[in-house]
Specification:
It is a single chain. This protein is mostly helical. It has one domain (3-254). The chain has helices at 3-25, 32-53, 57-76, 88-95, 99-108, 120-134, 142-152, 159-168, 172-195, 201-206, 212-225.
């Protein structure tokens, strides 16, 4: 990573957050999109720091802050304003093993498709994870969700559907192949966006290198389902796969330079 540009990306994220957090706390930034932007700048700060310094402490901290900020937003929003598929802060929580935060997000999330803002298959993906992997509902209802997901694809193909099926069937080989294919698909898409300058400036420094969704899927596979997985997956750095050294605090987002308690 280009150190000078990494430093700029971190500084820019901190500059935006310092200005945004008070407005977010008092409700001036009250839309779901505002919350996602706050979480994105936390993610930029932590992911870039992890890539620059070669350890994951800052990454686990900002995942805590992102999850807490998102939870704060969900408590204020009516169901009509929620979009279940807009789930990156959920992946932040799962990727660091903040299960209390993930369960809280699950309890606050909309349980029906919001057709004005999301595709049905995208909704069903996150809904499935929340119900059957986070809230641990009986798997008897899982097949109906998967079947509806397949119908919503209208003959199309979704690697995430295969991954979720592999998880509930505890099929390590299918999960491995599905995740590798998903990460290859992401790499092609994201690097193409960088080349076309759809992704520019600070995000181009860090976003192509780390998939928080991939890391979250690995955490679900190993800690919830109990699968044996490989050590090395593209865009899922091994250093981020260890446990968070911190105790989760849902209010950590309120302080930019929060000092977490060690587990």
């Amino acid at each position: 990573m280009r150190g000078m540009f990494a430093d700029v990306a971190i500084s820019n994220a901190e500059f935006v957050l310092a200005d945004a957090l008070p407005a977010f706390a008092n409700g001036e930034l009250g839309e779901l999109g505002d919350a996602l932007q706050v979480c994105a700048f936390f993610r930029q700060r932590g992911t870039t720091t992890m890539l620059r310094e070669g350890h994951a402490a800052a990454w686990h901290l900002v995942n805590m802050q992102s999850a807490g900020a998102f939870t704060h937003a969900l408590t204020r929003l009516p169901d009509a304003a929620k979009v279940t598929a807009w789930a990156k802060p959920l992946w932040d929580a799962i990727a660091s093993g903040y299960w209390d935060a993930a369960r809280t997000i699950a309890g606050l999330s909309r349980t029906s498709w919001n057709p004005d803002y999301e595709y049905e298959d995208d909704f069903l993906y996150v809904h499935f994870v929340l119900r059957f992997l986070i809230q641990a509902e009986p798997l008897g209802g899982a097949e109906a969700v998967l079947a509806r997901w397949e119908e919503a694809l209208e003959g199309g193909f979704d690697l995430r559907l295969d991954i979720c099926r592999a998880l509930i069937e505890r099929d390590a080989a299918e999960f491995d192949g599905g995740l590798r294919a998903l990460m290859a698909e992401r790499a092609e898409r994201v690097w193409g966006q960088v080349e076309r300058q759809v992704i520019t400036d600070d995000p181009s420094i860090w976003y192509p290198h780390v998939s928080v969704e991939g890391l979250a899927l690995l955490r679900l596979a190993t800690q919830v389902v109990g699968l044996e997985t490989d050590v090395h997956y593209p865009q899922c750095p091994e250093l981020a796969r260890g446990p968070s050294p911190f105790v989760y605090d849902g209010e950590a987002w309120r302080v930019l330079h929060y000092q977490p308690t060690r587990a």
